[in-house]
Write a structure and sequence with these properties.
The complex is a heterotrimer of chains A (425), B (320) and C (298). In chain A, helix 2 (53-64) links the parallel strand 2 (43-46) and strand 3 (71-74). In chain A, the strands form 4 sheets. In chain A, strands 10-12-11-14-15-16 form a 6-stranded mixed sheet, with helices on both faces. Chain A has helices at residues 28-38, 53-64, 78-90, 101-106, 108-117, 141-144, 159-174, 203-209, 234-266, 292-304, 322-329, 349-359, 382-396, 409-423, and strands at 24-27, 43-46, 71-74, 96-99, 122-127, 152-155, 182-187, 195-198, 226-227, 273-276, 283-287, 309-314, 316-318, 334-339, 367-372, 404-405. Chain A has 425 residues and is of the alpha/beta class. Chain B has helices spanning 29-41, 77-93, 111-117, 119-127, 179-184, 199-209, 225-228, 235-244, 270-274, 290-312, and strands spanning 45-49, 68-71, 104-110, 132-138, 190-194, 215-221, 250-254, 257-262. An 8-stranded mixed sheet of chain B has the order 2-1-3-4-6-5-7-8, with helices on both faces. In chain B, a hairpin with a 2-residue loop joins strand 7 (250-254) and strand 8. In chain B, helix 2 (77-93) packs parallel to helix 4. Chain C is globular and about 70 Å long. Classes of the chains: A alpha/beta (425), B alpha/beta (320), C alpha/beta (298). Chains in contact: A-B, A-C, B-C. Chains B and C meet through helix 1 and helix 8 of B and helix 7 and helix 8 of C. Strand 9 (226-227) of chain A pairs antiparallel with strand 7 of chain C.
Chain lengths: 425, 320, 298
């Protein structure tokens, strides 16, 4: 056993860590607001919901102070908000909006419409688990419910990533090879209300990286058009929908190109997935979102203990980066997919997607372990990651894994004591 | 845009913005009012629509309107109008598009969308003072889905979901929601009822409304041949009777102040209006339901007594 | 499979009901049967289509959707016969039967096929005689049942009753419809229909990504509907007497379709698109309009 170090024994830091030089402490919500400000969005239809509200509050203040020139309208619901976002975009404005959980679901019908209209808005979703039971704590059920809508879906781990991915999302969405809206997701509380250092890019550089939106056929008096029209011929409907699919697939290439440019401008490197100690690993854990940070720490500790393990973080969920996932996971002994969502009666959504990406791969992993964890705001710790590794090893020997819920003994005791109070007797 | 005032029918015979060849029913009342509305507003218009019969004008690849069109969803046409108006405003303000490219934003929905599922977004838009027009074509049921009763269906109407039976001989037992009053309660600059049978009344109202910035709201009676079970040629005739019997008052409210624009000197009996429509035929055959007809008549009279008293100072002026 | 029947008509003419009467009759005859209509955007008066499939297999019919290769076509309205959009005889099988409701004799019917049998009957006339109204649903269903050659009167009678009761037709009106069905059933005779063939094999293609100007579902060529020629919906054609016309413009304002325009030479009517609602006839203050029964599609 190592002796516990005292803080006083550590060397005092003399220089600022280069990665935070010039950075400013801010929440994920404020980082999202900054991204909208730096993207010089024209229009922000809004509606409050915890834990997103700080984003539209921040933007309202900037606009009221004259620091930002955009039209912000509070609507009567998220359904109306998303409708206005879509039609505003079709009129040629760069549109930003944000919601969360129940609000996302309330406006859900319009997500399909906005994508089908080919209106390249960027919507920030601050993840919050879905009622019932109602809660304020996060998981990814709200975000993943949008996977079939046609939106480009991006997931973030840090407050810096929130800002950067929103800028990247506009680049991808507004590219005519894609022309589909994006959702950038950040986890409620763990990012929305958590402050971290965030580097704010210079506005001139952002303007150069992200030129003004050039809408293809906006509503203009001189050029009438009928949008959102009915398509009753089945082959034509099928054609349009498949074109959305092909355009969505284009987003992988467009995103990668934009990431190269982004790095040249701002020095930070992104890709559709992020590999953490994956290349030489035998065991890989797949996950996404803010808890990836916890996962990386666990992987690092287990590596130090001699275990050949890595972590694959999904940054892009739609289009699903099938090739990148395949190349990262082929030849591995076992893969565990941690789903911070639950599809009752099946298990986790990402498990199905990762498994299907790997099925036709020649050197597919022998085991793909479905794990449900971190739902409704339940955190993960090193203990859960160690348990996952045990299971991956166990199923190496044989057996058919079923989805399991990561649940600790202390948590079960907590549940039991709450039940005793609530149920009585 | 300077425009000369339209004062007679002959002034309305110029450019039309709705091209022939729509898929709407022969004799459709909604199409008459839409065409007229468009003539008065001119061509620089974007229509914002919620699900209803009129939606089916625009089925790819055909578009009978020469102006712009945005179908949203059933609940949210006014929110769609908000997005377009806001975007035009900010883009004009930022100098990104010239003012000549501006559009009048006009919501067009049926009564089904206006009275219930779309009421929240309408209330929001009116309350926010959105600068837009709203044209509700009221055929008093969900016409597009086969004439089920809506919140705008009047007492005694046959619909697909309120069939007259021995158990329920009068058909629809509910009452018509008073959308005019709901809208008026928001005190918008302009709200009016109109009828395709009275085109110059429509023209004068739109011309009056155009002077205001903010919500300008219209509810038009919209005779529906397959739903009302009338002859295609009777759309205007039945609309005229609705006005002359007092069933469909023509009125306007400026910032909430109501004034009737057509006050019948003598109300015709409602029976004249009811008996030419198949949707009320069960009130006449096999046995005449005098009780139901009398109830409809007395409700109309009650309404008009108040109007006569308030607007011409004699409460039974037009009542026989 | 025995019968692929396709019904063409206009919304409101009872084509859907006819396909269901045939469906009922075949069902009571003991065959596995399937019937369904297709609804488009079009409203009352626009061309519509319905289908009945009849099988001699003892299992549910393993087919769904539009019948492209019928062996029996029932056309409710002769004015649709040469309509290029409706194209009612498309896919009719060699030696199949085409029934047309018309007052014309068969030698006055012209189609570009000589390998099919044409049967005509004036069902409007029969309906007026038996029911007092031009109701086509019962008569079309009865004719179709007879032309299949596999349905007996008892099954048809039961089929008509069941369908009409379901849509609320009872008592005397039901009796009159039964008499009408009987008359129609006796009026036509069947010839053997060809055994339905499978459609010719067609090639599967790959759909590639296309640029956004083609793939945004929006119409930029607006105001393009004159080519639809909704004049083929018309049953009655309004005729203007220019001598009487005062050019007041009332009909221009009241015409829902906007097919009446005021020109320097007076009113012009776009008959290609006039749906024949006759509001102009009804509302003209000087009664300058008359109307005639339409015989050919516009």
């Amino acid at each position: 056993m190592m002796r516990t170090k005292l803080i006083s024994e550590l060397k005092p830091r003399r220089e600022i860590t280069p990665t935070i030089a010039g950075a400013k402490m801010m929440t994920g919500n404020v980082a999202a607001a900054w991204a909208a400000r730096l993207a010089e969005v024209d229009y922000i239809p809004a509606y409050p919901i915890t834990p997103q509200t700080e984003i539209v509050e921040t933007l309202s203040q900037w606009i009221a102070l004259g620091e930002m020139n955009a039209k912000l309208t509070f609507l009567d619901s998220e359904h109306s908000m998303l409708t206005a976002a879509g039609t505003g975009s079709l009129t040629g404005a760069r549109v930003f909006t944000a919601t969360s959980s129940q609000g996302l679901l309330y406006g859900f019908e319009m997500l399909y419409n906005i994508a089908g209209w080919r209106a390249p808005i960027v919507l920030v979703n601050v993840s919050r688990a879905v009622a019932a039971p109602i809660t304020l704590e996060p998981d990814h059920n709200d975000f993943l419910s949008t996977r079939d809508t046609g939106f480009i879906l991006l997931q973030t781990e840090t407050c810096q990533e929130v800002l950067d991915l929103i800028l990247l999302a506009y680049r991808v969405s507004e590219d005519y090879r894609v022309l589909l809206p994006s959702i950038v997701n950040l986890d409620g509380f763990h990012l929305s209300f958590t402050r971290e250092p965030v580097k704010l890019p210079e506005i001139e550089e952002v303007r150069s990286f992200l030129p003004r939106y050039n809408p293809p056929y906006p509503f203009r008096a001189s050029k009438p058009s009928a949008k959102g029209v009915a398509v009753l011929r089945p082959p034509l409907y099928s054609f349009y929908k498949y074109q959305m699919h092909l355009s969505s697939l284009n987003a992988i290439k467009v995103f990668k190109e934009a990431c190269d440019e982004f790095e040249a401008y701002f020095g930070r490197r992104y890709d559709v997935v992020e590999k953490y100690m994956v290349d030489d690993a035998e065991y890989v854990i797949v996950m996404m979102g803010s808890f990836t940070s916890i996962g990386k720490k666990a992987v690092k500790m287990m590596r130090e203990e001699g275990l050949s393990i890595g972590l694959l973080k999904l940054r892009m969920v739609r289009p699903f980066p099938v090739q990148d996932v395949r190349r990262a996971l082929e030849g591995k002994k076992a893969v565990a997919v941690i789903d911070q969502n639950i599809s009752p009666g099946f298990g986790g959504t990402l498990y199905a997607e990762v498994s299907s990406a790997l099925y036709n791969v020649e050197k597919k992993p022998k085991v793909i372990l479905p794990v449900i964890g971190g739902i409704g705001g339940k955190t993960l710790s090193l203990d859960e990651f160690r348990y996952i590794v045990e299971l991956m090893k166990k199923y190496q020997e044989g057996g058919e894994p079923e989805p399991i819920l990561l649940f600790r003994e202390d948590e079960l005791r907590e549940v039991e004591s709450l039940l005793k109070i609530g149920v009585g007797g | 845009m300077s425009k000369t005032k339209l004062s007679t029918i002959k002034d309305l015979l110029g450019e039309d913005y709705v091209v022939p060849g729509t898929p709407l029913c022969a004799g459709c009342g909604a199409l008459i009012i839409l065409r007229l509305f468009h003539k008065v507003l001119g061509g620089r218009v974007v229509w914002v629509n919620a699900a209803g019969c009129v939606t089916l004008m625009m089925v790819y690849p055909f578009a009978p309107l020469k102006s712009s069109w945005m179908y949203t969803a059933m609940a949210c046409a006014p929110a769609g109008a908000q997005g377009i108006r806001d975007a035009l405003d900010i883009l004009i303000e930022k100098g990104r598009i010239p003012i000549e490219e501006d559009l009048k934003v006009v919501v067009v929905t049926g009564d089904g969308a206006a009275n219930d599922i779309g009421l929240q977004s309408t209330s929001g838009a009116i309350h926010r003072g959105l600068d837009f027009y709203y044209l509700c074509y009221d055929n008093e049921a969900f016409g597009n889905t086969g004439f089920q009763y809506s919140a705008a269906t009047p007492y005694g109407s046959r619909t697909a979901t309120s069939p007259p039976t021995p158990l329920i001989p009068e058909g629809y037992r509910g009452t018509k929601k008073d959308l005019f009053e709901i809208w008026r309660a928001h005190k918008p600059p302009y709200v009016a009822t109109i009828s395709p049978s009275h085109p110059m009344d429509v023209v004068r109202k739109i011309e009056k409304a155009e002077k205001y910035r903010g919500p300008k709201l219209f509810i038009s009676l919209s005779p529906c041949q397959p739903g009302w079970l009338i002859d295609t040629m009777d759309a205007i005739k039945v609309a005229k009777l609705a006005v002359e019997t007092g069933v469909w008052p023509l009125k306007e409210a400026v910032y909430g102040e109501v004034r009737h624009t057509f006050i019948p000197r003598r109300l015709k009996p409602v029976e004249e209006y009811l008996k030419i429509q198949g949707r009320f035929s069960h009130l006449f055959y096999p046995v005449k339901r005098d009780d139901v007809i009398a109830k409809i008549q007395s409700e109309v009279e009650e309404y008009w007594r108040a109007v006569y008293a308030r607007e011409i100072g004699k409460e039974d002026a037009g009542i026989s | 499979m025995l019968i692929y029947a396709r019904f063409h008509g206009r919304g409101g003419q009872g084509v859907k009901t006819a396909s269901r009467i045939l469906g009922n009759a075949a069902h009571f005859e003991g065959y596995y049967t399937q019937d369904f209509p297709i609804y488009g955007a079009e409203r009352r008066g626009a061309p519509v289509v319905a289908f009945t499939r009849i099988s001699d297999e003892p299992t549910p019919i393993p087919e769904r959707g539009y019948i492209f290769n019928p062996n029996l076509i029932i056309l409710a309205d002769e004015s649709l016969l040469n309509d290029p959009i409706v194209n009612p005889i498309s896919g009719l099988q060699n030696s199949g039967t085409l029934f047309i409701n018309t007052s014309k004799p068969v030698d006055k019917i012209f189609i570009n096929r000589d390998d099919v049998r044409i049967v005509v009957e004036d069902l409007i006339d029969l309906s007026l005689k038996y029911v007092g109204k031009p109701v086509l649903s019962t008569s079309l269903g009865a004719v179709a049942a007879k032309l299949t050659g596999i349905i007996r009167w008892v099954s048809l009678e039961e089929g008509v009753k069941e369908e009409l009761l379901e849509i609320g037709i009872r008592g005397e009106m039901l009796e009159k419809n039964i008499l009408l069905a009987k008359a129609c059933f006796e009026r036509v005779y069947p010839t053997p229909l060809p055994i339905p063939k499978l459609a010719e094999p067609r090639k599967i293609v790959k759909i590639n990504w296309m640029p956004v100007d083609l793939t945004i579902p929006e119409i930029r060529n607006v105001g393009n509907t004159r080519v639809r020629k909704t004049g083929n919906w018309r049953i009655f054609k309004p005729i203007l007497n220019p001598e009487k016309c005062t050019r007041c413009g009332i009909c221009v304002i009241y015409c829902p379709e906007g097919v009446i325009t005021m020109t320097d030479n007076g009113l012009e009517i776009d008959y290609d698109n006039c749906k024949g609602c006759l509001i102009c006839f009804n509302e003209c203050p000087v009664k300058a309009f008359n109307y005639i029964r339409e015989v050919e599609a516009a």
